[in-house]
Amino acid sequence: MHHDGPLIIGGGLAGLSAALSAAPAPVIVVSPAPLLQAASSAWAQGGVAAALSKDDAPALHLKDTEAAGAGLVDHHAAEVLTDEGRATVEWLASLGAPFDRDAAGEFSVSLEAAHSMARVARVGGDGAGRAILSALVASVRAASHITVWEDARLRALIQDGTGRVRGAVIEHPGGRMVEVLAPAVVLATGGAGGLFGATTTPVALKGEGMALAWAAGAEILDPEFVQFHPTAIDVGVDPMPLATEALRGEGARLIDRDGRFLLGDADGADLKARDVVARAVHAARAAGRGAFLDARTAVGDHFPTEFPAVFAACMQAGLDPRVTPIPVAAAAHYHMGGIAADPDGRTSLEGLYAVGECAATGVHGANRLASNSLLEAAAFGRRTGREAARQAAVKGPVVVGAVVSDLPQAAHAELRAAMSADAGVVRDAIGLTRLIALIDRLEAAHGAPPALVAARLIAEAALARRESRGGHYRSDYPGTATTPVHTRLRRDILQTVAA
Ligand SMILES: Cc1cc2nc3c(=O)[nH]c(=O)nc-3n(C[C@H](O)[C@H](O)[C@H](O)COP(=O)(O)OP(=O)(O)OC[C@H]3O[C@@H](n4cnc5c(N)ncnc54)[C@H](O)[C@@H]3O)c2cc1C
């Protein structure tokens, strides 16, 4: 079929922000599940980072973003992001996102790790993601220019002889494939946490957008940078419920089984950068000491009202966090790397746009600053929607890419376990080589489903980066190189390029 406007793949905050902002161009949004399901956006607990308080300024937010990103933040992209912070939060509020307010009606802000001041706008304590996405879903449902295809999935990209992306193959329920030709395809497919055995994201997020973009010839940037969250709740649930960082912002402490602090007893020790805290949790567990988040004193009886989602997750597992420390582990949480894109979503391929977690715009560098990703999804989502809507249809012959299928469940489970073990919080050449051998074996048996392609991109880039930086820690190369370099991958090419 021919469609006259952007074809947007993904119904999270990035995809829906793009869809709303593409008006009046007609938009199709493709989502594999009903909106609000199978999207990290709906699970976000902390909130949206922006310079909102009177002591704050976009330049200070930019400085913290660059410090967290460990030498690889793109200054221009991060400046655009932080400059648009307040306007983006106000736009979300204007759509009905019920941000917490102070007595004067200003946005209430809270402190999260590696921010030099309180700057995270929250909703109902830990309910930001669901509340914000619900507001967007209501606007999308009411928008006459948007058609939503639920229970539909991206299965291939369509290109012409020049490589320009001209559309996509979408699988509908029952296996019906529809070839859609459109002036612009926007990938907003989210992260890759579902490639890891221990993850806080929906398991359905497997880096499929990144894999199909790579197969089409698009440039992939720094895929080795995965952020592991230090406080995934370890109660045998897959994916793992999250204990938001805001709990540590309120004074909850990380301890071992004997009550010893994992990161020392200094104030703020537990609010160090996420990679540092994740490694401390990982090390304590590996040493058999266990790792626990103790919120008994700092939050105590306020738990049900201040952190209702975390409280409910704990109680469901039979654990009352008011009286018992919460067992925690580090788990894959956010993908900094992805499809190379600019703040307007442009990728290296004409006609193809990428935004949100599947994109790598350089704003997170090697390590995302907490709560910058919802801001990116909404701010760059709006920019990308406007840019994609400006594209005019192109005529001429097209080539439909190979239609992909899924990795069988047992093989996917094997892949997930290996990714957490060998491309997880602590990596080395032996483990990564073992992981790549497994991917080779699975590929020989099952072809190249997107999950395997995405896993290979992460593993190969992690093996090639012989240093430790941000979310990527190599126990065989624990030092950080003096000159930061990016990893850039295209089909059959892996290059390192000065930042
Ligand atoms: C538990 C948790 C808490 C978080 N807390 C915060 C926070 O407080 N602040 C913050 O800034 N960030 C937070 N994050 C990160 C943030 O939620 C995400 O980075 C952000 O929501 C990503 O938005 P997105 O639209 O790019 O992706 P998503 O919201 O994940 O949406 C991706 C969409 O693409 C769809 N999709 C995937 N594959 C396909 C396919 N093949 N075909 C069609 N559609 C597909 C998915 O189903 C989904 O609809 C948190 C993440 C998690 C998991």
Strand order of the largest sheet: 6-2-1-10-17
Beta-strand percent range: 15-25%
The CATH class designation of the largest domain is Alpha Beta
Separation of termini? 42 Å
User: What spatial form do the alpha-carbon principal axes imply?
Assistant: globular
Which stretches of 5+ consecutive residues score pLDDT under 50? none
Structure characterization notes:
Residues 7-374 form the FAD-dependent oxidoreductase 2 FAD-binding domain. It catalyses: L-aspartate + O2 = iminosuccinate + H2O2. It comes from Brevundimonas subvibrioides. This is L-aspartate oxidase. InterPro entries: FAD-dep_OxRdtase_2_FAD-bd (IPR003953), FAD/NAD-bd_sf (IPR036188), Fum_R/Succ_DH_flav-like_C_sf (IPR037099), Fum_Rdtase/Succ_DH_flav-like_C (IPR015939), NadB (IPR005288), Succ_DH/fumarate_Rdtase_cat_sf (IPR027477). With 499 residues, this protein is of the alpha+beta class. It folds into three domains: 6-192 and 336-399, FAD/NAD(P)-binding domain; 231-332, Succinate dehydrogenase/fumarate reductase flavoprotein, catalytic domain (Flavocytochrome C3, Chain A, domain 1, Alpha-Beta Complex); 405-484, Up-down Bundle (Methane Monooxygenase Hydroxylase, Chain G, domain 1). It contains 14 helices and 21 strands. The protein has helices spanning 13-21, 58-68, 75-83, 85-94, 128-142, 208-215, 246-249, 274-286, 303-306, 308-316, 372-389, 409-422, 429-446, 450-464, and strands at residues 6-9, 27-31, 48-49, 109-110, 120-121, 146-150, 153-159, 165-172, 176-181, 184-187, 220-221, 226-233, 253-255, 292-294, 326-335, 338-340, 352-354, 359-360, 399-400, 485-490, 493-498. The protein has a five-stranded parallel sheet, with helices on both faces. Strands 18-16-11-20-21 form a five-stranded mixed sheet, with helices on one face. A four-stranded antiparallel sheet has the order 9-8-7-19, with helices on one face. Strand 20 (485-490) and strand 21 (493-498) form a beta hairpin. The radius of gyration is 21 Å and the shape is globular. The two termini are 42 Å apart. The model has no long low-confidence stretch (mean pLDDT 96). The structure holds flavin-adenine dinucleotide. Flavin-adenine dinucleotide is lined by residues 9-15, 30-33, 38-41, 43-47, 128-129, 153-154, 188-190, 200-201, 204-205, 208, 242, 333-334, 356-357, 371-374, 377.
